[in-house]
Amino acid sequence: MIISYTLPVYAAILYNKIYATTSNIFVHIKLFGVNKMQIRNNLIFLFFAMFIFSGASIAGQIDDLQPGNWYEAPNSNMETVFPSPTPPGATGPVSIMQTWNGGAYDTTRDRLIVWGGGHMDYSGNEIYVFDIETLLWTRVSEPSNPIATCVSYYEDGRPSIPHTYNLLQYIPTIDRFVQAGGGQFGDGCSYHSNTNLFDFSTGIDDGTGTGGWSRGASLPALGHTTGRVSAYDPEDDKLWVHGTYSGGRLAQYDPDANTWTTHGGYTNLQIYGTAAIDPVRRLMVLVGGYGGVRQIYVWDLNNPNSPPTIPNTTGDRTLEHAQAPGFTYDPVSEKFVGWPPVSG
């Protein structure tokens, strides 16, 4: 499974498109066969892409959905599973999707995972999943209580909630939801290099203890955390991350060894790019950036110490200038697929 994120959040599927709001989930079949999962809250669109492998079960209504049509999943309002009382924050749990946050796709259970908040917007660090079989949201963990500002971990040992950007992935070989570094809840706080892993196999969290969270090896220095990109390569079972701004560089995480390895020199990436991996050709491609400036890079993962290349492209180059475009790799067509961000 490949998932990449910036603002908004991105990913990709093969057959079904999900459009989520704090109201309901909408599912759509694209005519050209490559699908995108869209998540929207208010005026912010969060795009996720997931690979649903053959044999995965999907609700019958989606199976029967014809190309070009939408299906609104009933009772798919995420607000119905928000915690009560509501954790502190200026904008509340709508910020889980609204404020620079990301997600991942659990390929083991066919569930979309959403986790986010951060800054002064929302302090709740609970995890939500949308089940593709039942088409329903579930809150699988409870928010920490009490919370604190500008700490990497709350009093109960669970991670503080940041803007999660493109720092979230699911790694099926270890069955863990992973946060690769991040910030802290609060204003003017620092960033951290922690690798946090959540184990869904421990069951639904009861709100006590670390609730399935564990800590992995710390990330090396990779530049800034804001707008950082990441992608999971299913072929070599590695998580690849690249930092932004000056000092930005590439690193890979080995989930079995629980180690990080840095590669190559420094590339000054702008924020709001989106990365995806072609696992056959062993290429990681990033498109999009900040302020309309063209940004496209290609890393050869067979030679990760070599600097990225900037390819010459033809045709519609909208994505190269877009802020947080949707971007993923489709193994069926063996092509990268992108779509511009949508607002309004």
Description of the molecule:
- The protein has 344 residues and is mainly β.
- The chain has one domain: 6 Propeller (Neuraminidase).
- It is 3% helix and 35% strand.
- The protein has helices spanning 60-63, 95-98, 318-321; strands at residues 3-5, 9-11, 17-20, 25-28, 37-41, 44-48, 70-73, 102-106, 111-115, 128-131, 136-139, 168-171, 176-182, 192-199, 213-215, 224-233, 238-244, 250-254, 259-263, 274-278, 283-287, 296-300, 326-330, 335-339.
- The strands form 7 sheets. It has a 5-stranded mixed β-sheet. Strands 8-9-10-11 form a 4-stranded antiparallel β-sheet, with no helix packed on it. It has a 4-stranded antiparallel β-sheet with strand order 12-13-14-15, with no helix packed on it.
